[in-house]
Structure formats: C-alpha cells, structure tokens
C-alpha cells in the first residue's frame, strides 16, 4: 500500500508582514519590528524622529556538524519565521551598584518581545509490515527576539527556549544587522580576534576599507584581523546631522565576542571566518547563503574557535544584548547606564569584601625597560620543575625584590594608597611568552629575592595590601590547573585582588582571546575568585560588556591600549578622550594613569614619551572612571612633584554622583563627581592635542555652602610635547553658581578638588 | 668601509658517510646507523642475518610559525647533519614491576647514541657608524638519535638537548621511516586521530589501500582517518619468510601519538594532515618537501592539534621511543618486555596502595540496552545547575540504584571479587554525548536513588570497595575543572580506583584523542590520581605505550575494541587472538571479559551476540593479561553456571611467572602463569573461529610435586555460534613432565587451574 503525503500542501508561508512599534518612556527612541516577505526578522530605530538604524535583518546562521543526526540542529534561524506572540511591558526600577559612578542607577525601559516560529516539513521514510511510504513530518520551533527600549538607546537579544525541536546548535555566525543612515564619522579599531590594543582610527565609514591596512599594527604578535572592513565594538559614531551613535553589547557570557563587519560598496560577500593559521583577513572562504545587505550596514561577526565555529549552544539560552545607544548630546553617551542596566543583578550574596582600590606598583620601570620581570639570564629556556632557584645566578635587574617592594609599601602607606602591585614575583618569566609553552607559570613559587610572607606581613603592618599578579601567558589550561592553589596562596598571605594577564597566543592552540570558550574562561576565573573573596583585574581579556554588575569583584579590565603604550612609542593625545566613548562603555579600565615624568629618556634608555601633561594625567583619575586606579609612575617621580601628587592622594575612586559637564569624542571630556559617602566633589577635564577651554559651572555644589577649591591646571605655556610638567595649583573658596573657566593645554587637562568648609 | 664575508666559503657539506654498527647482547639483532650523502640520518636493522628494516631515513619536519622571529625554530631536522660523537654502552639490569606478568624483568640492551649537528650560515645585516655590511653568521645545533638494541628488537628516539640554537620548535610532522622488506601480512587498524575501536584487518601491505574504505566503521561518530594507507600501532606483521615484526612506541608522554602511513606504489605524496573539520582522509593538503621513500615504507604520522600542528617542544626534550620488535617465534612477541623496558622507572615513592583488582559491575545490562545510565526522560536536555533532582520523575530504568548496587556488592563479597564498578551514578547522563556540551558532568552529584555514603559503607562492611566512574564525554576542560573535587570525593567515601571515559569529540573543539595535549591530559589525570592514591583505568584514552611502568597506578586502559562491541554487533572470534600482539604490547587492557550468556536476546531485546564459548571466556583471564579484570556478565548469569564461574573466583591477576606455550597471531594463544606469591599455576588457551588443539606441556611445574588440576574446556560439540555454553570441567592430579592435549572449539578456548596438593 502506498500513501501519499497529506501534509505536503500545508507548508506555512508567512505572507503577511507583522509589525510591532514601541516607544521609549519619554518617546525619544522608537523601535519598529516586523517580518519581511521572506519571514526575516527586521527592525529599525529612530531618535526624536530621526532615523538611527534603517530597516535591518536579524538572525543566526547555524553550522552543519557531523552530529546533526543526533539532534544537533543545523537549520538556520534566519528566515521563514511567523509571529506567534508579542508582549510589551514597562519596567522602572532603581538599583545600587556595589561601586560605580553613581550611588543608584535607574533602569527604565519599555520591553517588546516577539515570539517567532519556524515551521517546516521533512520527509520521513517508514517501513513496516505491509506498508511502505513517505510522509511529510511537520516541525516547529520558536525563538524570542527581545527588545528593551530606553530613552537613550535600545538593546535586543535572541532567546532560545528549551523545546523538543531546538536543544543544541552550533553557530556559523550571528547575522544581526545595523544599517546606518549615511557615511558617519566613526572612531574604530580593526576587528581582531586577539588584540584590542591598536590606536583608534577616526574616519568616515566609507574610508574604513582604505585605512585598514595602516590601522593594523602588524608588529603586534597577536594580530588576527578578519576583514578589511571589520571593526570592534564599542563603536562610537557621529552622524552628519549630529547624532552620537554607539554600537556595543551587554552581558556577553559564554558567547563569542561580537565584531562588526561593514558592508560597503566594494563588499562582495560577508567574511565568515579567518583563514586557519593565518593572522590576516582573507577573501571570503565560506560565503553566507543570504543576500548581502545595503552599503553602510554593519553585520555582526563573532569570534571563532579553533575550528572556525562561533558558538556551541544548548537551550534554554540567549545571546548577549546588542546595544545601540543614541543621543544628540555627547555627554549623554558617557552618562548612559544602558549597558549596565542590561546585565543581570549582582549574583554574589556577600559583597562586603569588594572595595575601591588606589594602588601603586612595581611595574612601570619594567614596562619602560629599566628593570626586568625575570630573574636570571642563566638559561636559554626554563622548565619550572627542573630548576633549583636558590642556586641560580641572578642578573641583578630583577625588580620584584624585597628591598624595592618595601620601598613601594612605604610609599603607599605614606600616601594613603591601598595596595601595591608586584609583577615578576613568581618564577617563569625567563621565557614566558609566544613560545607555545604550556607550563609557563605555577603561580606559587616566588623568586628567591621575593619573601612573600615577610613582604605581606610588612605591608599589613603598615595598613597596606599587596596586589597579586597572575600573568597566564594565555596558557589557559595551565592557569585553570593551578587556579585553586593560586587563590589559596592568596588567601593564605592576605592578598584580596589579582591582576591577571593574557599576553600571547591562546593555548590550546587555535583558540582566540574573544571566543566563546575564552569568554567562559574569564568569567570562570572571576567566579572562582569570588568564592575566595578575591577581586579581579583582567588584562588582555575580552572587552567588558557590563558583567561587573553581576560579578562586582570584576573591578577592572585592560582590554584596550593602556598607559604601557606610552613606553612603546606613545599614544595620541586624543586617545583618552575617545576611550570613555568606546572601551569604557562596557566597564572600567585599569588604564594605569599618573605618569608625571613623561620623557622616559630622563631616567631610562627608552626613547618613548607620554603625550600628556601632568595636569592632564591628574584629570584621568576622573575622566577614566574606574574603582581601581593606579598611580603608575615611580615613587621618586611623585616625590619630585609632591604638590601635584596631593590630588592623587585626595581623589576618590567610588562615587555617589557624576555629572558630565562637557564632552566631544576625541576632543575633550569634563566631568564632576561626588565622592561616595562624603560632600567632597572632584572635577576633571581632559583634552586632545588642540587644547580646550573648559567652563565648569558649579551648579552641583550645595547651595549656601562654601568650598575650598584646589585647581591643578596646565601652566600657560604647558604643552604635552614641549612643556608637560608645567602646572599651577590654585586654591580659592567657591560656592554654587560660580563658573570656573580653565584653560587646558594641548594634550593637557585639569583637576579640581572641592571640599566643603567645616 | 665594506667588509666581505669571511665565513661564506666555510659551509660544511657532509660528504662522508659515517656508520655505526651495533649488535644486541646475543647478536641476533644488528642495527646500522649512517648519514647519507645529504646528511640524512639513516638506519637499518636485521635479525639473525635477515633484514627486518631496510635502510630508512629519520628526521622531523618543523613547522613555520608567526613567532619564528622570536626564537621558535623552523629549520627542519631532516638533513644536512654531520656526526659529532658516537657512544656505545651495554646495560644489564633487573627490575621489579609493581604488578605484571612476571615478578622481575630483565632489561638487557646495547645502546648506541649518535650526536648529530647541523651547521648553517645566515646573513646578518649590520649598520653602524662608518660601517655597513652583510655578514654570514655561522650557526650550529645538535640532536641525538639514541638506539637501544635488544635481542628481540630495537627502540630509538630523538633527543633535543637544551642549547642556544634550539630551544623551542613546532613539529610539522615526524618523519621516521620503517622500510619493510616485502609485502608482509599485517594485522592493522585504520589510522585514526580519534578512535581505535575498529575491527582489526588482516591483509598484505599491498592490500591496505584497497581495503581501507570498508575497514573504517563510518558509523562511529569519532572517526577521523587521515590517509588511505594510514594505520595504527602497535602494528603486527609477519613476513613471507616467517619473521614476526611489530612496530609501536614506548613512553609517549607529552607528545602526539604516532600512526604509520604506508608508502605504496600509488602514493604520490605523504599526507601531512587531515582536512580541517573533516573526518575523512583527503588529498594531501600540504606535501612534504622531502623525497618520497620506496614502497613498503611506513612513515610516522603524528596526531595533530586543532591547528594541524603535531607538537610544541621545548628543549631539553625527546620523542617517545619508536620500537621495532622482531622474532621468528610468535611467542616471543608476547613475552617481550621491550616496551616496558624502554619506559622510565617507577616515579611514585609509595606504591603500597596499588593492587590487582578483580571486579564486577553495574555495566553490561546498560551496554546491552536493558537499563540506562540516565535517570529521567523529563527533559529534552539537562543543565546541571538548573535541576532539582529530588523533584525529577525517574523513568524507572536507572541501573545505578541502591537495590541493584547492593545486589552486586553481595555478589562480589560472596565470590571474592575486590570491587564493584557502578556506571551512571552521577547526574548528567540524560544528554551526555556528542552535543558539544562542555559542562556535561560534575563528578560530584549522585542521582537520587544512589546513596553514595550508604553504598560505600555497605560495601566496606563486606570487604568490598566501589569502583568510581568518571565519564568525561571528552570535555576535558570540564573534567580538569572538577578533578580535584572529584578525587577528594573519592577519598572521602573510600574509592581507590576510577574508570574514566572519553566518548565523543574532544572539547576544546578541533583537538583529537591522541594529540600531544590530550596525551598530556591523560597523564595529568594519572599523576593527580596518584597524589590521591587512586588507580586509573582510562577508556577511549590513547593507546598505551608502557607508561604504567613509570606510573603503576595506571592499571588499565581500554583503547581498543572491547567486550562492549559484543553488544554492538559483535567482534570476530579471532579478535582476542590478535589483541595481545597489538594493543596489549603497550600495557594492559580492561577488556571486560566473562560473558557467559552470549545470546543477548535471551535476556534483552538486543540481537547481538558474543562470538565466544564459555570456556573461551575463561581463557581470556589468562591470555589477555591485566592487573584489573572484570567479571562482566550479570550475577544471575554467573549463578546459572557457578561451576564454571569457580575459575573466575580462583584465577589471579598478578603473576610471578608467565610462559607463552603456543601463539600465532589471529589463530591461537596459550599461556601458563604462576600466581604471585603462591605455587598455583593457571593455564589459558584461546583460539579463533577454526578451533585449535592445544598441547600443554607441564614442564613448568615443580618437579616431584603433585597438582590438583581442574580443566575448564569446550565440550566436544561446543561452538561459539551454535553451542557456546557447552563446557566440561575435569579434575585430575598431574605432575611436571606430563602433557595435556586440549581441544578448543571454534571461537572457544580453555582454562586450567593447577594447585599443589597440600
């Protein structure tokens, strides 16, 4: 007997275009969602009636895998959707961060969730006694695209409920599109799987392709760029009609970090992955099956694993939030809490052990090349288990020695700094990087001249803590093998914070710094650290996406070009006027500011110099918000400029209130902040190479109260290149309503402390 | 001023061919070593004047890497060598294994070490005040090729001393050649990066290519074959003139497992790696730069990592030993200790806690499909941290439940078995394999019906231990994250042995079961286990290479097609007459013998059946040496054949003496063994599908002493297919000098116990 399919005719074709329209609480931001004629999810977004994102598709291409037959899904989540359900709701709540720029944060948004279904039929062959036939079996699976619409932007994410037809899938790539309205100015970094330490480029979107090659510092051994139009987030843009637009992501956990690939008029196909083993973009090795979007569209591009795949997912799960922030006022880009708000609440029961930290450290002189992390030149290479360190001949340039560390402890104690970072304390630095060496550090064994017990005891006796350093050399397997013991050692000696590092290529080989597995690793370390009441400051880890709300022991990240580059050839003076718009959107940066002696040649053989004035350096403690702030220069340099250093002694790094007074990307930033639990205000202003005249209206001060105002400003003839150490310190009494007019030198800035009179 | 190079003319060309000739202690094996006219290391080997390995090249191709400029070497170690030094010495020592086939092992060899140097010049550009010029800089680096020549074969390895010019390198592939003398018969498995559980093929070398496709069980999801002529080691061969030749490796630690690629008359180029993401051999993607050897030459082919590279090395280091065993007597292939001897001595100070173990377990009924590892059908997938197991609805087929485990404990206690394995005790089995799921098990949380404390207490009260099970699902990162806690849990409840499993694809994705990193992982687990006094029995791990000498807590491995396949369609009757020649060369196998009810349909829905008689099953406890032996069938099946089970109760699994009486690969094996510390002898014989008549000369018994002899033999009409349960048990008194003639049925065997009369 033969049976014909009864269901074959019932294929559901989504002929109708459905649409949801949602406005933000104050109506400034409007989001439209619809399905196009192929059932592709589509959205657009406007701000005060002006388009921000033109109609753009959403979806994910899934990968084929040999385990597909066992239940791993490989049908893409790109099109053929019908709308099953829509839900709209409003949330208005206020929460208190453990640390931050403000004491409380309001989370006020309108949410729109579209439940979408794909239906398909599939032949099923049956064979049994007396009957053979082919049937069309009907399948359905559902996803949710959830939008949160704020007055200053949107977030959206894909959610994958647990269901019979969707349990596991591999991501070939996420295809979230962001179609811009024109040839915006953008502040961008080359999209790269392994480094985010390049200089920011400022160009029109149409100029990205032409500038990519020189934008990449090919000398950086970690370079792994994937496309001539690939850029990183947070991407700050400014439209020709004056809108500030920022694309980034929030709550990126156990998912690959997103880049953006710009479709321009030369794009033939989207890049799907970097050629294996290469570190340079290649002609598209595996083109997407879906039509190319219009020029000026950014398309998400996730960081792959060693096999080129972008993610292994198990439902229930979701992607990170994709964020588009928008304003016609640049200050709002800095004041926005959209990314923190899109993260989950604090996951730690007890956060009493987490505290803002000002620190100095045995670090800068090694970066500059005056002393070393390593201890001996005796060996061409090191095997940790084969060396008796007590018998090794020291080369005499090892910085992390008892005498020097005590000197730093004394300095910290005298100046009210909380902790002292010591890098190079543990064995293994002789050959630590870029040799594919797995067992590179044990995070346990100090060099013979670093008495870990004595130094911690000494520090504690002076009310100071040591700050631990774990350079992993990106050998993550090795770090995870030692992690528990390393944290136990910290607990034993009284360390409560660790700076981690991920220099060099990832081991296991083929993986990338920003892949799903590495993002999982970074968060694994943060969670394990929390169990031990340890704060984490991760360098070279993936750029943050606000996870510090959920895990506030993640007190810092590097994840951008930090002060160290001032010793590697320097960074442009506008660098620090860009970072708050880009890198800092996701969380604080351990920028390690405070270089007072900017000409390194004055005390070392290093020809490099920091492109900043002393007053500009002081400003960074305010304009570059972080609960963890370093005074990075040498104690003896601070002692030479002790009157200026007074500001670093005074400044807080946790705040009840923050008011951005002036801002323009790559030009200048001026911010006033009220120190947590006090009535003291601090104001900082930083500018680019052109200088700036800041107007500081003291509206924020308590009316009727007098404040002792100390102004650390660039001297009249100060200049980041020719006269960086020229500053003035002016003290006066001020009150609310007054306006201070302060001139910032090229590459300069200013800092003000305002203490209420008793 | 311009200077011309003075050194340019001094390039050393190795024009002279040097040669070392070394004979084994009794002169049977002779090794020749030389450098050919291109400075390529070359060796050949003979046995009793007959060639075994014709002149064959040795060397390693190194990989290019982006870090080359930083000191990572990329000049291949293939040719251009000169002989710097030769050393010859003789060693004769005897050592005591912690467990084994004999109480002592003699290690008697002649060693030959050739120190070889490569010289090269390299242009160096100098630029200074008043002088510019190009100089030829002279470089030299050295390696050692070390041979150990035994009376029954050779081992050789490459050693890389620490030196200025050779510190780190990446291996593109090792190119050790083994040129055979003709078209030998070989017992081979398809070379595969991820599985060694195929049926052995018996063919001429020239037939390998033609048979490869059907030799691969493409249904096995782990298949990753790399070449149509790639085979695994240990590779057993027999030459047309009757020499038994075996190629394998010894002491493979932190190095990729070796395969062999046969050059035949169709070979155009050597395969260098499997195509990324594929699981099938592909046309050579990256041909070697060196000339192809002659047909009938095997060339080493290492298992790659996710990027296709074969190893990351840091000097001082060495490769594993490459072994060629040879004899004109097949019994010597089984009696040889060459591979154990080439391993390092025991690395553990205290081995008192390591003991031979006979065990039963909650296992076979799950393999057969009668019950399950998993507990519930409630969820389409499982996230360990999101399920309250006490509220889950059990499906009722969960085998690892209190009642059943107690039944097994009672059975073990009653029958003198040491331990009871319980698989499926811990949560996560609902969706454990092949979904790229990282966090698949926690190795901590029992299912609600497995009372871990009660069951261990109950077992201990009866003098029995439970045997832990850690299926990792090949998610090695997850296992390493939980390892310490998992071992602490074992210590807490009194487990002293763990069976580990590595089913499915390796996570991190792209890695392979036999890569350098995975071999490091397996040994890492063994070392960590030793710290906790835990014995390890690793399934699906890399095939052993004698590391159990160094780490005797590695009491077993699967690493081949085990008894489980009798429930997956069956294995050929000759399978167990091949394994001792191949898989067992490197160390014991947890073959899990002892199936008495071979027709699974009798008690389950499984149509498969074991191709063995009951007497044959008993023989395996002797012919398949292991210090860990399972009685794999169900207690109720043993209770039905309690008289036959008496042999399993009696038989030892640690020995003072072992004498191979008869052997021919794939035909039959007969062995006599004296139980450690006793005067009891046991004899076992196992044959293929053709049956065999064994002659057991009782020469090994103490003269003048009488022994109570119990013979468990196939009944006259026994047959593995039609009458597998027909056996006879005969008791008689025997003495030295007598000969027993025992008929083994097709697929059958026999077992004998010989106890001295009191």
Please give a quick description of this structure.
Chain A has 758 residues and is α+β, with helices and mostly antiparallel strands.
Commentary on this structure:
Chain A is built from 12 helices and 37 strands. The model of chain A is unreliable at 1-16 (pLDDT under 50). In chain A, helix 7 (476-493) runs parallel beside helix 8 and helix 10 packs parallel to helix 12 (642-650). With 758 residues, chain A is an alpha+beta fold. In chain A, the strands form 7 sheets. In chain A, strands 7, 8, 9, 10, 13, 14, 16, 17, 21 and 22 form a 10-stranded antiparallel β-sheet that branches. A 7-stranded parallel β-sheet of chain A has the order 28-27-26-25-24-23-29. In chain A, strands 30-31-32-37-34-35 form a 6-stranded antiparallel β-sheet. The interface between A and B is large, with 47 and 47 residues.
* Most residues in contact: chain pair: A-B, 47 and 47 residues
SS class of chain A: alpha+beta
The percent range for strand residues of chain A is 25-35%
Count up the helices of chain A: 12
Shape of chain A: globular
> What is the typical, i.e. mean, pLDDT of chain A?
93
State Rg of chain A: 27 Å
Oligomer: homodimer
**DSSP strand count of chain A:** 37
Largest β sheet strand count, sense and barrel closure of chain A: 10 strands, antiparallel
Helix content of chain A: 10-25%
pLDDT under 50 segments of chain A (min length 5)? Answer: 1-16
Q: Tell me the span between the first and last alpha carbons of chain A.
A: 99 Å
